[in-house]
Amino acid sequence: MSTVRTAVRTAVLETEEHQALRAAVAALGKRYGRDYMTTVIREGSHTRELWAEAAKLGYLGVNLPEEYGGGGGGMAELSIVLEELGAAGSPLLMMIVSPAICGTVIARFGTDEQKRQWLPGLADGTLTMAFGITEPDAGSNSHRITTTARRDGTGPDADWILTGRKVFVSGVDIADATLIVGRTEDARSGKLKPCLFIVPREAEGFGRNQIDMELHAPEKQFELILDDVRLPADALVGDEDAGLLQLFAGLNPERIMTAAFGIGMGRFALGRAVEYARTRQVWKDPIGAHQAIAHPLATAHIDLELSRLMMQKAARLYDDGDDIGAGEAANMAKYAAGEACVKAVDQAVHTLGGNGLTREYGLASLITASRVARIAPVSREMILNYVSHQSLGLPKSY
Questions:
Q1: Strand, coil or helix: what is 172?
Q2: What values do phi and psi take at 20, rounded to 5?
Q3: What is the model's pLDDT at position 73?
């Protein structure tokens, strides 16, 4: 396990309860570790054992309301869980999707029936939800989404009919339902507006094709085809006229959790590199004594710590109900963590030299995996667009 001291020196920003949560989750992650994850990937299986134990200990639903079996916390707590599991080499990608995005949206905007139906299962791990927003021609640009939802009839009890396609949807094969972002027509303006629908896995007309990925992970990626999928009126989550507000209520947690995913992965890689540099001896001293090795590792450590600070800020703002402030901070945190993760993994592999490419040390596969934090759920270039427009007030080029 890593000798890098990153997990406990956060007393100013984290409560004693947060520090205890970090330590407990780190202990759970250590029992599984990278060997467990690589075995699951090699066998084409899923992280059922770790998911179930994390749920039993209350970690998966730590952000969900207590009245529905959750821990009553927020993104600050849930991001700690994912970061520490990642730092142990066994991150749970579906935590970003199921409790963070879907659980948050349903908890904030769902009907009482939707909350009763989904939140207890999401909290105890017996139910899982996927999230579908990205489209072949629109990416995650909510203004260009072409998946449409129309009423089949009139009145509030009329069914919905969903038609469209989604791509790069994680974990659909293990999810009980998928929260789909579609668009409905505004009766006053005729414009399309985003809305969220719960689509059960076995819904008629709801097809999926697995995407062949070079990325090796337990969670598979899918293309979804919605061919006139009929849904009851109560499949709509929240208010039809508040789609963007509800959508970003899920996207900000997604960015915070992606930052946690990247920070955890970066910490794992850095820990392996530091351990190697302290013990690998080619000349008189270990290679870690040489500044050409030590300084890049120190820089990686600094970048990861700075990323965590922004992630903690974003989580605090979100949990305090400041959606606008959280939007800016969450995007910045995701950007910073993605960059820090890629650089930490690259430097770790380089530190180990040829050993960095062997299966024994478990770093080579992270070269591809670390790019996820840069690319998904929104690219670093789109985050720079967001910051230049929203934070700096610069004009748009599109």
A1: coil
A2: -65, -40
A3: 97
Note whether 192 and 148 are within 8 A (CB). yes
Written as six digits, the tokens of 379 are 């690219």
Per-residue buried b or exposed e for 230-261, using 16+ beta carbons within 10 Å of the residue's own CB: ebeeebbbbebeebeebbbbbbbbbbbbbbbb
For 74, the token pair is: 């927020």
Tokens linked to 311: 């992630």
Ranges of H-type helices in the chain: 16-43, 48-56, 75-87, 94-95, 104-109, 112-124, 243-279, 291-319, 323-352, 364-369, 371-375, 380-386
In this prediction, residue 3 carries a pLDDT of 45
Q: What are 45's two structure tokens?
A: 């299986």
Other CB atoms within a 10 A radius of the CB of residue 292 amount to 7
**What is the token pair recorded at 28?**
């759970």
* pTM of the model as a whole: 0.93
| Regions of the chain short of the pLDDT cut 50 | 1-11, 187-188, 190
Q: What is the pLDDT of residue 380?
A: 93
Segments in 280-387 forming alpha helices (H): 291-319, 323-352, 364-369, 371-375, 380-386
Give me the long-range contacts of 307-310 (CB less than 8 A, separation at least 24): 307/259, 307/262, 307/263, 307/266, 307/333, 307/336, 307/337, 307/339, 307/340, 308/6, 308/10, 308/83, 308/263, 308/337, 309/13, 310/259, 310/336, 310/337
- Give me the helix-helix angle, 75-87 and 243-279, nearest 10°: 30
What is the per-residue pLDDT across 169-201, written as a single tens digit (0 to 9) for each? 999 999 999 999 998 865 445 455 788 999 999
Q: Is there a contact between 342 and 269 (Cβ–Cβ < 8 Å)?
A: no
Query: What's the distance, CA 273 to chain centroid?
Result: 25
Q: Is 108 exposed, middle or buried (0-12, 13-18, 19+ CB in 10 A)?
A: middle
Decide: 36 and 90 in contact? Cβ < 8 Å.
yes
What is the rounded CA–CA span in Å between residue 37 and residue 50?
10
H and E: helices and strands count for the chain: 12, 8
Best CA proximity match to 162, nearest among 145, 176, 140: 145
- The C-alpha atoms of residue 370 and residue 142 are separated, in whole angstroms, by 25
